[in-house]
Amino acid sequence: MAMKPSCRILILGRKSVFFGFPIPPPKCHPSFTNNLPNFRLNFGHDRKLYSYSPRILGSQCVIDRTQKAFCAPNSSWGQSRVFSSTCNVDGVGRGAYLIARVASNVRNYSTSVETRVNDKNFEKIYVQGGINVKPLVVERIDRDESIGRDEESRVEVDAENVNNENSKDLNEAEVLSVPKEESEIEREAWKLLRDAIVTYCGSPVGTVAANDPGDKQPLNYDQVFIRDFVPSALAFLLGGEGEIVRNFLLHTLQLQSWEKTVDCYSPGQGLMPASFKVRTVPLDGNKFEEVLDPDFGESAIGRVAPVDSGLWWIILLRAYGKITGDYAFQERVDVQTGIKLILNLCLSDGFDMFPSLLVTDGSCMIDRRMGIHGHPLEIQALFYSALRCSREMLTVEDGSKNLVRAINNRLSALSFHIREYYWVDMKKINEIYRYKTEEYSTDATNKFNIYPEQIPHWLVDWIPEKGGYMIGNLQPGHMDFRFFTLGNLWSIVSSLGTPKQNEAILNLVEAKWDDLVGHMPLKICYPALEYEEWRIITGSDPKNTPWSYHNGGSWPTLLWQFTLACIKMGRPELARKAVDLAEKRLLVDRWPEYYDTRNGRFIGKQARLYQTWTIAGLLTSKMFLENPEMASLLFWEEDYELLEICVCALSKSGRKKCSRGAAKSQILV
Ligand code: GLC
């Protein structure tokens, strides 16, 4: 949606004070250089830089058709909707480029980063531990482009110091990954992944969602989606290539401060786009400029809010630090401000009665109407993960104390809420079956007034004796009993669930293998909405017909998160079984986005082929299985301190035994 220049100028007036600092006139500043191969960020050449909202001022990557590039201030500042940065392009696609401003005055003096890691050839990665983990030193030998795939890497792990209670396989004093022949499928996958790379001013900044040469109508699949890029980023990181991930994190950070407008309304400041595209805009003469064009939902089908984008951004930021050891990056002032903006948006007060995030339908991977508005599990699990990441990454100082306190409180309230009210297993369903309703009091058992008739018929037969899961959504008078895979996997990965619950979720996946995995891992949700339910809940969506796409389709990209969860729970064999299944078909089937039918036998009706996160998902899963110690950097164990906060808060509030007892019993499980 193009913005009107006049509107922009008005907005400039309205928003000309950001973080309490006036916005000075636009200037072109060389604040970000990218000199390959020794990737160095130098965000603070000019520490007196002022900051502007990117929408208000843009500078350009101007490329002369004669292949000379030069720096020019953007003459159309205040007019361009898209973000563009000035760059030098040497025609071969390498060079320094400049970002004209940072998001706030606070970001002005970002540190010039002295990375501990040379992206291409690093020797040592210093792995910072979590609360219960002492620093771990990982050594690798001479990495080059093909690192992690076809060369020997030696990893020394101080087993005693790693707290991986469930990851029996990881506690080896020394893990040697044997040099491995790259299989045909891996070779092909890497080639396709590289072909999917998007460059901006000559530097890699992300991967397109799909690269299907036969696709006549790519819609927005030619864009870089934030959520889709995560498995690509992990594949690159595990392969020793940090640059693209770093660029991605920085560019999306710039887009975050965009002045976004959906019709006449502006969503919150910290919102990250769902996706962005690099557009080439012709200029006078033989020149053209490259501009970044974000989509905050204003063009997306259904105008859905990308609530998960900021959460994924934080999760990826932590992963970048953990895998490369470049912790200085996350300490930069602009990056810290980015984290805070996202958190402020998520933690802001509203009318909510629950600690879970209230969102509209389609605000996550399922980005169209599927009856998940309210408090969908996927968002809650990503929210919880992002809070845990932020707590680790936020620099503790006077200015962030309150935020850290708010994060801790929210973490404990959220985990209590989800563990207590989203969890179902045989026993719990039986309790719900016998619920009394219309209870008015603070210590009601049936707090949300769930009518037992809501228990769906399929569930009565489906729930196994052993195992359980987190339901898809909880609202007053409403439990959505569908099994949503992503949310359940992230409950395991982030320890949103108790250790027992996490184990039980994998038990359920194993017990229900034919339903959740079948011929292709993994179902996005189970079961599908059919008949009247499909008509009413999806609005008769022809793409989301029963057992297709978001409505019970099978998504191979979920494999990497499944693998992570399995490794965490010490069950890599389960992941291997799923990877083997996927490997049998993905290459032959040309890497579909999703599969249809009850058991995932057919390539999805409208599935894109050469879908990047399908490709990256498989590669990442295989790399995790080969290097479980790397996977272990990306998950969390139970945090007992959080549980204590929860018990304390509940005791202080004087609320009755039910909740307090429940919090304590969580500690015991
Ligand atoms: C579909 C998916 C969404 C994904 C996008 C790009 O819209 O539902 O999760 O990000 O395609 O692949």
UniProtKB/TrEMBL annotation:
InterPro entries associated with the record: 6-hairpin_glycosidase_sf (IPR008928), 6hp_glycosidase-like_sf (IPR012341), Glyco_hydro_100 (IPR024746)
Keyword Hydrolase: yes
GO MF annotation list: endo-alpha-N-acetylgalactosaminidase activity; sucrose alpha-glucosidase activity
One Pfam family named in its UniProt record: Glyco_hydro_100
CC annotations in GO: mitochondrion
Enzyme Commission code(s) on record: 3.2.1.26
Coiled coil spans: none
GO biological process terms, semicolon-separated: sucrose catabolic process
Domain of life, source organism: Eukaryota
Keyword field: Carbohydrate metabolism, Glycosidase, Hydrolase
Reactions it catalyzes: Hydrolysis of terminal non-reducing beta-D-fructofuranoside residues in beta-D-fructofuranosides
SUPFAM superfamilies: Six-hairpin glycosidases (SSF48208)
Its job: Invertase that cleaves sucrose into glucose and fructose.
Family per similarity comment: Belongs to the glycosyl hydrolase 100 family.
Protein name: Alkaline/neutral invertase
Species, as recorded: Davidia involucrata
